Amino acid sequence: MSNKNWGKRWLACAAIVLGGMVTGHASADTITAKITGVEYATSSYTTVGVKFNGNDLGSVIAGPEMWHQTAGSTLLGDASGNFLTFCVEINQDVHLGGTYAFSTGTVESAPTPGNPIPGSSGMGAAKATLLDELWARHYADITNANSGAAFQVAVWDIVYDADFNLNAGNFKAYGNTSAINLAATWLTDINTNSTDYTDPNLIALKSDIYQDQVTFGPPPKAPPLSTPLPSAASGAALGLVGLGLKRLGRRPRDDR
Q: How far apart are the first and last CA of the chain?
């Protein structure tokens, strides 16, 4: 499919529609950002079949969501305000080209409102710790569309099940064997190995009416001059954070 047409298709986790311009409610600590695309989606999207809460949602497009920050005191991403997220909410949407206001908060407090799963108060500390572990162990392994889709699948399983089994529970994945097998490998890794990684500084972008996201928090303050600076490669987070645009639960479609 040509570049002209692929941008009009439904993307995975969020309902992304070209040209939509919507703004969420502001709060004391908010950021405003425009969703601009899906990382690695150049001519087509990588899809995964999803079953959620007993319903078959069909093939959904999974990949890091690309954002450009336009306002807010909590500065995310690179010097130009570009950052990536993975979605942690199946039941709400964002739209490609839309601008949204999110409140920032802890990962454990997302998603909001959180119904029907994992609950009205967010995913809780245990699942947030598992997401920390997933980011710390395998975020650097995202190098293409397939591994990006695998990471999103792993995120969804943790948020909505944490059973480390993509064939059972509230969240199930099927169809894309390569991405699903890689996600299963990463889930097994964090399930069988002790949590021994430092906090990757994740934060949640939350909204009661739009799809919640997880991303890296603001960059840490510069270390003392005596501390060696990390290499440029170790800061590659700017190119990979968000997964799944479009609504999880909607089949990709051509709106031509």
A: 12
DSSP 210: S
Please give the DSSP secondary-structure letter assigned to residue 94: -
Contacts of residue 194, Cβ cutoff 8 Å, sequence gap at least 6? none
pTM for this entry: 0.77
Mode of pairing for the β-strands spanning 213-216 and 202-206? antiparallel
Q: Which amino acid is at 77?
A: G
Q: Which residues pair with 72 in a beta bridge?
A: 31
C-alpha 228/C-alpha 251 separation (Å) is 47
- The Cα–Cα gap between 218 and 202 comes to 9
Residues, the chain: 256
pLDDT in tens, 149-184: 999 999 999 999 989 999 999 999 999 999 999 999
Can you tell me the distance from the alpha carbon of 162 to that of 159, in angstroms, rounded to the nearest whole number? 6
E runs forming strands in the chain: 30-38, 47-52, 55-61, 65-72, 82-87, 99-105, 171-174, 202-206, 213-216
